[in-house]
Amino acid sequence: MKRYVKRMLFVVVCVTFLMGGQATADVTKYKVPVISDFTGSWAQLFKAWIPMQKAVFAWWNDEVGKGLGVELELKHYDGRYDSSVIASMWPGILSECKPIIALGGGGADVAALQQRLPKDKVPVIYGTATYGYGWLPDQWLFQVRPTYVQEWAAALMWYINKHPEKKPVKIAFLSCQIAAALDLVNGIEKYTVEVLEPKGLAKIVAKEFTDVNPVDVSSQVRKIVDAKADMVLGIVTPAMSSAYIKACGLYGTNIPTIGSPHHTIWAFGAAMKTYEPFEGHLVVAAHAPTTDDTSKAYGYFKLLVDKYQLGKDQYNPYTMMALNQSILAVRAVEHAAKKVGAKKLNGQAVYDALIGGPYTEQELMYTLPTLEFTKDAPFCTKNLLVAIETVKDGKYMPVSKEWVPVPTDIKKW
Amino acid sequence: MTLPAGVYAETYDQDQALIRTWPQWICLICFMVLLLSLPLYGGGKVIGFMNVLWITLIAVVGLQINVGYAGQVNLGQSAFMGVGAYAAGALTLHFDLPIWLTIPAAGVIAALFGALFGLAAVRVKGFYLALTTIAAQYVFAFAMLKLPKKWFGQIQGLRLDPVSLLGFQFDDDVSIYYLVASISTLMIYGAWGLVRSSTGRALVAVRDNDKAAAIIGINVFYYKALSFFIGAFYAGVAGALWAYYIRYVLSEMFTLWLSVWYLGMLIVGGMGSILGAIIGTVVIRLLQEFITYFGPWINQISFFSSIGGGIIFSSMNMLLGCVIILFIIFEPRGLAHRWNIIKESYRIWPFPH
Known about the structure:
The structure holds 2 protein chains of 2 kinds.
Chain A: H1 2-26, E1 28-36, H2 43-68, E2 70-78, H3 83-97, E3 102-103, H4 107-113, H5 117-120, E4 124-126, E5 141-143, H6 148-162, E6 169-176, H7 179-196, E7 202-210, H8 218-226, E8 231-233, H9 238-250, E9 257-259, H10 265-272, E10 282-285, H11 296-307, H12 317-340, H13 347-356, E11 385-392, E12 395-398, E13 404-405
Parallel strand pairs in A: 1-2, 3-4, 4-5, 6-7, 6-8, 8-9, 9-10
Antiparallel strand pairs in A: 10-11, 11-12, 11-13
Helix pairs in contact in A: 2-12, 3-4, 6-7, 8-9, 12-13
Chain B: H1 12-16, H2 22-41, H3 43-69, H4 77-95, H5 99-118, H6 126-146, H7 149-152, E1 158-159, E2 163-165, E3 168-170, H8 173-196, H9 198-208, H10 210-215, H11 220-246, E4 248-249, H12 256-269, H13 274-300, H14 302-307, H15 309-330, H16 334-348
Helix pairs in contact in B: 2-3, 3-8, 3-11, 3-12, 3-13, 4-5, 4-6, 4-11, 5-11, 8-11, 9-11, 12-13, 12-15, 12-16, 13-15, 13-16
């Protein structure tokens, strides 16, 4: 009897081992490096990204990867949002992960890696908007959103169309002298001067600069008020935004701004627990609005909350960037795996799949409009759509349930 | 410096030699072989780390000549490095010059920029000089964003293709390793020679007491400006190598914060010693690597997560600050001094040091 039990146990162990071996043999694992920031200046932001990235990848592994025989494993690296750190660690990432795709953080890793990626053959996906100086052909960087200028121009046009009585809309810039902000000012300025002004739609009346994180911008806002501006553009940090609102209060005015969701209304509201000072202001991004909890994108987020331990408060403009880059990354791998097979995936195959697109809104779980990449730019250049949000009666909400088109007459600046 | 028992110089050349004994030669050769063969067994992580280390070493050794030997406060080394990077990039892009010409040219251009700010050192000292060199940082960033786009690309920066020398292309980490390692070795050797020369002694005299130095006939004005010229030359060469490694040059890569790290490296390694600059750079780079490695792990700790990422960032900067303060209090002469004590203790063993 004892011998019989032992034999049975042996058989059970062998069968389990073989079955386990069989199961793992059917799935090919790929490591996906994520250039993050745990100890640098953006640690607070990236901390919020990680659960979202993990949830999307876990969802994809369960729902799609298993069927394809692919498992994607995220590996986070601390780039400290510092080009020298990222440049130093990237060769190690290549040898450790042999990545077929990577998730990027922002400008620091773009600067450190942009030139070498075509040789390394690793496509890197970004969830942020792009700058004019990144508008280059044959890139291995892929941005889910177009340039800030394109996004802001869409909001500006929407505002002009909603307020025909204000034509030409008087634009003022309040920005700072860092490369990213200057790029934005230059792009909007060129578009206004070359396209909008000749048509009598808008004109620039003031251009003021301040620090990146100013305490007081009252003298700059005084000039903007004196110039009778209808709209202020160029605010790129929550600190600028809050200083602007304070200065507006000083002069008893409230000139609306156009900004990115994570720079102005949401960031301010999260800190002050009120959106009222931003009544009538606009934020714009080429991803689903985070203020609409009836959207299909929110439905997908709910699924992640229910099944993948994501916090309920994780649906905001910050985490939306992580959600977007993750969903495009997994779909790109999916396209590539369907084409070359799970075992033959490599960076080139994923790159070809990204260029080969398109990625429909449905595939992207309605968090992004349909994306179609070409070799002309690191972002989509055709059929660009954005979502605009505003504050109405103290409530932060989308201006429309539909996507808003980006003007097609924006030229490189 | 204490020498092993029985080792003494019989000629002037022997007295001047950097390497005096055959065990020293063996150690040096073994070390060089180790460095040369590193790409064979080091792996990507090590090579990536070493490439940035070599480049940083050049900038920090230059800063050592300027700060440690000549006693001039310099918080603009990062800007001088940036000038070198832009100069090398522009010379390569616009004039298609070979790197054997662009790297020294980048050094000279950065040196002239550095000497310009160094001229202030004739009139001001200490905090005032520090502020002058901080101004270099801002002038550099502003100039790169405002000078004609054709020159330095303004906000677009400069993008470079891989460079080559004698038909050999530097387009991957290993080839770049050999380029930066060889130039760093040359620059460090040059620095060692310089500080042992009459120029080096004049710099030390100016550092120790510029009035006394002037009385004994040293041209203080010349040597102060020269120290900035040399320090910035080193930074310019480092910048050029950075440009050829990353192949993208943007003013925002060269921040004031980087200059502060470089000064931290000098304090930890030891002021007034080339070996100190080397040790300090290696130790601080390893510390940075440690922070980077444990960053994701630290973030997982609920205590840190609950109080936010900002505190982690602050903690890491505080760590650097603490390291510097601890060295100033307990070992103001840096790790190089500690190393010399260990060496001398070994040489005179079994007698107590």
